[in-house]
Design brief:
4 domains, seven-stranded mixed β-sheet
Length: 568
Amino acid sequence: MLKRLFSERPLRLPHIKPYVPRPSDPSIFWFNSERGDIVSDVVNRICGAHETDRSRLEIALNDAAFHEIRRLEHQRDEEARDRLGYWRSMIRRIGKMDDAEQRQALHTIVSNMAHDVAGNFDPRVYRFARQAIPRLVAGVMEPRRFASSFTAPQSEVLSRVLRVQGDIDHLQYLQSEGSLVFVPTHSSNLDSIVLAQALEVSGLPPVVYGAGKNLFTNPIISFFMHNLGAYRVDRRIRVRLYKEVLTLYSQVMIERGYHSLFFPGGTRSRSGMIERHLKLGLLGSAVEAFTTNRVRRVQRPVWFVPTTINYALVLEAETLIRDWLTEEGQTRYIIEDDEFSQIDRWVAFFRKVVGMRGACIIRFGEPIDPFGNAIDEKGASLSPAGRNIDPGGYVERRGTPVVDATRDAAYTRELGTVLAERYERDTVLMSTQVVAHVLYRHLVQATPGMDLFGRMRLRSEVSIDREVVHKDLGDARERLLALEAKGEVRVSDVVREDSPNELLEAALQFWNGYHTSTAASLDGDRVLLCDPSLLLYYQNRMVSFADRIADTDQMEAACEIEALGVHR
């Protein structure tokens, strides 16, 4: 039944009287009434920037035709059959068009792109989802409690899986004073779902966010995403105009006061490492939104909320690490056949995590302004010395706010550096990651001179005395707690409170009951390393801390592990 449910045509709401937003509703409740104006604003601004220069206009049209022909010839699907002829005809006619025809072609192309990207928001779906989805997930995890999950308090249902950390009171205050832009780490396609629930249980507003168009192929997921503020991002499209549409759409939404979310890392972290090299396009859109509003004398603050999403068990771990190891992540970019697309893997995953304390921890970090400055309790920007400063001064020239793309790009790069630092500091290290690191470090020590890929072939060939593992887990935990006391990282309550033996046994149970391969297992009084690739994936979250938690005799292996983050 579930398979049929997930494969039938998209869901539709029954005919119900449209919801009329109230003044107290979150800003996104008003989106549908502004959608047409937002799309028109995006189209007019992009076309206006190209139409004044015929050479630039021709380049834009040729770039669009060339990349779309190349993409559609490779796809060979229904879209290709519908659109390939149009683009082939377009590329032959561009040079023969007069100015008016070229402008009309540009307007048509950009308009089609903007309408395809633009999201939707239905308050009726939102109200249904906020009540039903947590209970449905709980019912899937524990079938015997399926009926009672729909009557249990929502907080009880969610607390079994999801923990939220951070200064929620501060964010609740800021949400009515300006635009919040949540910028989380990205590990799984579940991220948008769990983050939406974290916002809900924290009393924070729903947000506008971009989601890969491939995720809209599932009718149930598509139904909720399409009606809850998601705008579609087709990562197959390489056209410059399309990238401009995405960036400007994000910018216009922030300009208009919509709270937003995007993943600066771009796609999911294939390696499992904390993101360091961030994509700056959408970050830049928020910086430019602040600048544009200041030029227009709109005094609406924009604050970024660094957010880390931390899983003890990752739904797509096996596919992601395989993709990273084979370098396919650089060429394929979109994974369409991983565990996220398989309903049976969802069921197995959720049933497994129900037994884990704090299986997912969302940590909202301290908000910052568009220029990387900390803010006070009222949202005022602070200098490094702690003095109040006006962020508008960053975009002024001789006392007047001005748009300067080069200057704002430099600010965006600095903001990306600050966010990467915050991610490392606010990552919550989970029990499976600590255990995996200790085991993988032993593997490196046991195989001196062997490269990464050679170690991946050593399945069930290396084992470690269990007592040695216990000792090393205890030592690693103590050093991590010392780093946490310095504000350099955070650890989960499980890592902080459980004994080394409990940490090891729990990690083995979690891995072996869900993943199709066995990461590690007990063999008498020894721990057998069965699947080095899974150990690598989970331990990679700790790459940045490897040398800081190693003993002298472990330092060589720790430095080799840390180098993974430098070279990849």
